[in-house]
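Full entry
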Amino acid sequence: MFWSDKKKHKDTDKRKEPKELQAIEGDREGTSKSQRIREEALANARAARAQIGEDTLDKIAAAMTKKQQSATEQAKAQIKAADSDRVVDEILAMIDED
């Protein structure tokens, strides 16, 4: 019955090839799906921009820029960028002073 083993191996090899091809085709479909999602997102953004209006968007951008330039926001950014151990040491030192 050694011939039956050969058939099983041949069948197994044949079954692997279509799965590999399906995986490659799946990647292609995924790319086109992501492209469609991007196009849909851009269309939604354009529609929202048209509905809101340029003046309102400019006001929002100015308010966001003003907030980012505030002293509090700058301090937050510096703390995030600083070494965490140093920040802890400074906070503990401030607590000890009081």
Notes: The mean pLDDT is 79.
